[in-house]
Structure formats: structure tokens, C-alpha cells
Write a structure and sequence with these properties.
Layout (H helix, E strand, L loop, with lengths): L1 H22 L3 H19 L4 H5 L4 H19 L10 H11 L20 E3 L14 E4 L8 E4 L1 E3 L9 H14 L3 E2 L15 E5 L15 H8 L4 E7 L11 E2 L6 H7 L7 E2 L10 H14 L5 E6 L3 H14 L5 E5 L10 H6 L4 H14 L7 E5 L5 H10 L3 E4 L1 H7 L21 H4 L4 H25 L13 E3 H11 L11
Parallel strand pairs: 4-13, 5-6, 6-7, 7-10, 10-11, 11-12, 12-13
Antiparallel strand pairs: 1-14, 2-3, 8-9
Helix pairs in contact: 1-2, 5-14, 5-16, 6-16, 9-10, 10-12, 13-16
Length: 502
């Protein structure tokens, strides 16, 4: 086939040169025509692509438009209130706060407020004074020997591998300057996470950084890293929002030799973390594992992260905590709408409980069983603004983690290229050429400013509601659009022409 195409190509080139001599059309034009003819002929005989077989040259436009469709949608079609999972307005808010510039908007809201789905804060006629000090939360239950004072907002779990080296370093340096913690994600604690910031070390089912050659938990390796001064908390990952019950996924194109060495795996292969832990297999084993990690870490806060699925299992886990009189210091609740670098679509769209009902369920279960005061609840789910922080606290959280919010602060443009190593901003890629576009000194400052300005906005909203402490926040400070209908029914007559003012 190749010899046949080569022969045809040479023949066509000679013919085109002859036309070029007589018609003076130029060599470049002739060469282009030869290439198109060769490509066209090849596509008529290939059997893999039906479109190219029927439309040998024009068929390529279909693939071109398909490739640039997300960019066309984002830049030319979607409105400022459109865009999934985050609208342009939401992304712009993060960009402005990260750049420490004016984050106001002109001419009023673009949302339709007079509808049942509207949700807002009941402001007070007598607002409280805005607290300029950024809020913190003490984490550490009755068995904790080294409690940790955490910021109200922190960096959620994102591994080196999912994110680039430059992104991890910028996040950590920004967290160090802003005095908030950086969750390592399940990919392990690396040198890039150790730039001065406080660390929450996440232990996933792959036990990266504390695994035996067979992939099981290694207590000695864990103890060595868990007792580093920078490691303030340890989080056992049971499941995550985008793919609960599946285990982490690192695509082969992002699994470089450097990352494979850190994780103790084969490079350039897709890494699928097991869906479940090998160190335990039931609620009894999980509670015992929590106690074991607390002992190995000399009493540092130990918790776990999960996306709620079968609710009875969580209730059984709480009862087992009571039975053993052993409690995690914190529980991180992730919603099914959570983000990730790579997830099967069926899991992303159809597995797990959404953030709001999950957080409400966890909080109510802990309260009902009388153990809420022993455990801090951390939420992780689309936290990007002061409003989303206040809302999460009202639903039962003590503090918040954000992943995609901090990705936006690094310059992420929601290009949706996280899973194929082609992130154009250098955030979620291991491509050195793309990674160099992310300048650590600049982006770390943006991480710092996003955190600071977002918490300041939360303080302002708290004061607007007439509250002086986040401990006073509950669901009663919020209003829903369906309440307006009740107000209309109670206070406005059916015939407005009969309204009098005397």
C-alpha cells in the first residue's frame, strides 16, 4: 500500500509540475494539491472511518469542529450565567479575587430571582461589625494529642500527577503565606508539597508513599512521614465525589517516570487505585485503623473522606465508633458533583449522593447519636465564594475544602482537558512545554489572595446577617424563593386595584 501511494504521489507530483510549467500556478500550490489527492485516495480505500471514506477531504472538517467545539461553546455561545460545572460569572469572581482586583459587578444581578429556586441570605437591618481576622477552627477530638488550628477554607485533595509540579508548588507556597493547609490527594506526600505550608496527608487505597512492594499498607513508611512537622492531619480516603466506589485514576500519559517512582508503580501505564482498602474491610476494621494511625502519628488528628452512598453503612460506622469509644477527629464529606482529573462518565453522572443532602445527613446522624461534638465535619463540594462557605456551614459543616476554586486561582480556564494531559494553562498536565506557562511566583500570590479575599467576603456576609460568629450560622439565615409565594398569598390581595393607602 505504501509503495502504491508513493508511486501515485510521484506521478501526481510530476503531473502537477508539468501544469506548473504551463500554467505558472506555483510549486506550493502544486504540492498542496498532490497531498490532498494522496490523502483523498487513501481515505477512499481505508475501512476504519466511514465519514472519511465517503468524504475523503471534507470529512476532516468534522473532526476539526469537534475538537474546537468546547472553545466555541465557551467563548462565543455561552452567556455569563451559563457554563458547567462553573459559570463564567463564578470563574470571573475567582480570577478577580485571585488577582486582588475589584470583584464587584455592574448594573445588578443577571439571575432570575423571582422564582422558587432562588436562594439568598436574610440580611439584618442592624448588621454586625465585619471581623477583619480570618476565622479558624480547632480540629482534635478527645483522643487527639496534637490538635490543629485550621483555617475555615483550605486546599482540597489534588495529587501530584493529577496536577503539575508547578501547580503543586504554587498551591503550597500560597497556602504557606496564607496560613492554611494543603491536602496532598491520594498520590502521596512529595517534595513539591513541602514548601512550608501545613499539610493534610491523604491515604488512599493505593497507599502511595506508605506502601509495600505488593501495594499494601506499610506502617513504618507511614510513621516516618506522618511525624514530619509539616504534616498536621491525616485523612483516610474511602471515596470521592466524582467516582465513589471506583478508586483513583491516573491516565498513562500523565504517569511519568518521576511520578511512577514516587508512587512505586510502573511508568507510562494507567494507574487504577483499588476501589477498597486492603488494610480493613468493614466498619470495625476502619475504626481500628483510625486508632492505629493515631498511634503511629503520635496523636495527630485522623479523619476520613467519603461520598455518601448507602446511608445505613454510615450509621453502622457511627455505632461502631460508639461501641469502640474511638472517634475520628474529622469527617470530610464530598458530594457526587465533586470534581476530578479523570472519572468514568457513569460514575461522575450516576453514583453517590449530592453534596447538600449528604452534608445534612452526616450532620443530623452525628447529632442524633450524640457524637457531633467529638468530630469536626469538613465539606468539599464546589466551594468558590464566601456565600458557598456560609451555605455549607449552615448545612452542618465546620470548615470547607476547595479544589476547583484553587485551580481557578492558578489560572485554570475550565478547558476540560484535565484527563488527557493537554491542560493549556499548565495546571493539570505533566507536559513540560505546557507546564512552563504556570509561573510559580505569580500563581502562589494568586492562591494567597483568593483565600484571603474569599474568607473576607464570608466575614462580610456573616456581618450582613447580623451575626458575629460562624458558630451562630444555621439554615435560618437563608431564604428560599418558594417563601415569597407564601408572602404574596398572605399579604397581597387577589385584586390589586382594590389596594388603598388610607
Amino acid at each position: 500500500m505504501r509503495k502504491q501511494l508513493f508511486t501515485i504521489g510521484i506521478t501526481l507530483l510530476l503531473i502537477s509540475l508539468g501544469f506548473n510549467y504551463f500554467l505558472k500556478t506555483g510549486f506550493v500550490f502544486s504540492a498542496v494539491m498532490v497531498i490532498l489527492i494522496i490523502v483523498g485516495y487513501y481515505n477512499t480505500i481505508q475501512q476504519k472511518h466511514a465519514i472519511l471514506r465517503n468524504f475523503p477531504v471534507l470529512g476532516y472538517f468534522r473532526y476539526l469542529f469537534e475538537t474546537i467545539a468546547p472553545e466555541i461553546q465557551q467563548y462565543f455561545i455561552e452567556r455569563t450565567t451559563d457554563g458547567k460545572p462553573f459559570s463564567r460569572n463564578q470563574r470571573s469572581l475567582v480570577y478577580q479575587r485571585a488577582k486582588n482586583i475589584d470583584a464587584t459587578s455592574p448594573f445588578g444581578t443577571q439571575l432570575v430571582l423571582n422564582q422558587a429556586s432562588y436562594e439568598g441570605i436574610k440580611h439584618s437591618m442592624f448588621p454586625a461589625k465585619v471581623n477583619e481576622e480570618l476565622p479558624r477552627v480547632l480540629v482534635g477530638g478527645p483522643d487527639c494529642k496534637q490538635p490543629y488550628s485550621a483555617s475555615l477554607l483550605n486546599i482540597s485533595a489534588m495529587s501530584f500527577g493529577s496536577l503539575s509540579e508547578n501547580a503543586i508548588v504554587a498551591l503550597n507556597k500560597g497556602a504557606h503565606k496564607g496560613n492554611f493547609y494543603h491536602n496532598t490527594g491520594e498520590g502521596g506526600l512529595t517534595q513539591f508539597h513541602q514548601q512550608g505550608a501545613d499539610i493534610t496527608w491523604q491515604i488512599g487505597t493505593g497507599y502511595f508513599g506508605c506502601r509495600t512492594p505488593e501495594g499494601n499498607f506499610d506502617a513504618d513508611k507511614f510513621a516516618e512521614k506522618a511525624n514530619l512537622p509539616a504534616v498536621k492531619m491525616i485523612e483516610i480516603k474511602l471515596s470521592q465525589g466524582a467516582k465513589p466506589g471506583h478508586g483513583g485514576v491516573l491516565p498513562a500519559q500523565k504517569n511519568t517516570e518521576q511520578i511512577a517512582k514516587i508512587r512505586g508503580v510502573e511508568p507510562h501505564t494507567t494507574i487504577l487505585s483499588p476501589p477498597c482498602h486492603s488494610a480493613f474491610s468493614d466498619t470495625k476494621g476502619l475504626v481500628e485503623f483510625i486508632a492505629r494511625l493515631r498511634e503511629l502519628s503520635n496523636g495527630k488528628p485522623i479523619g476520613f473522606k467519603l461520598c455518601i452512598g448507602e446511608t445505613s453503612e454510615f450509621e453502622d460506622l457511627c455505632n461502631e465508633m460508639i461501641h469502640q469509644n474511638c472517634y475520628p477527629d474529622f469527617i470530610t464529606v464530598d458530594g457526587a458533583e465533586g470534581g476530578t482529573g479523570a472519572a468514568p462518565l457513569e460514575f461522575a453522572d450516576g453514583v453517590g449522593m449530592p453534596f447538600e443532602p449528604a452534608l445534612i445527613f452526616v450532620n443530623k446522624t452525628l447529632v442524633r447519636l450524640g457524637i457531633r461534638d467529638k468530630i469536626r465535619v469538613i465539606c468539599s463540594g464546589k466551594i468558590i465564594s464566601g456565600y458557598s462557605i456560609l451555605r455549607a456551614i449552615a448545612l452542618g459543616a465546620d470548615m470547607c475544602n476547595s479544589a476547583r476554586g484553587f485551580m481557578f486561582s492558578l489560572g485554570c480556564i475550565q478547558a476540560l482537558r484535565c484527563n488527557n494531559n493537554e491542560c493549556p494553562t499548565g495546571v493539570a498536565t505533566q507536559n513540560k512545554m505546557l507546564m512552563k506557562g504556570l509561573v510559580v511566583t505569580d500563581k502562589s500570590e494568586r492562591v494567597y489572595h483568593f483565600h484571603k479575599n474569599t474568607l473576607h467576603a464570608a466575614n462580610e456576609l456573616l456581618a450582613a446577617a447580623g451575626k458575629s460568629s460562624f458558630a451562630d450560622v444555621d439554615i435560618n439565615i437563608f431564604m428560599r424563593g418558594d417563601e415569597f409565594a407564601n408572602l404574596s398569598d398572605n399579604y397581597f390581595p387577589d385584586n390589586l386595584t382594590n389596594v388603598t393607602r388610607h
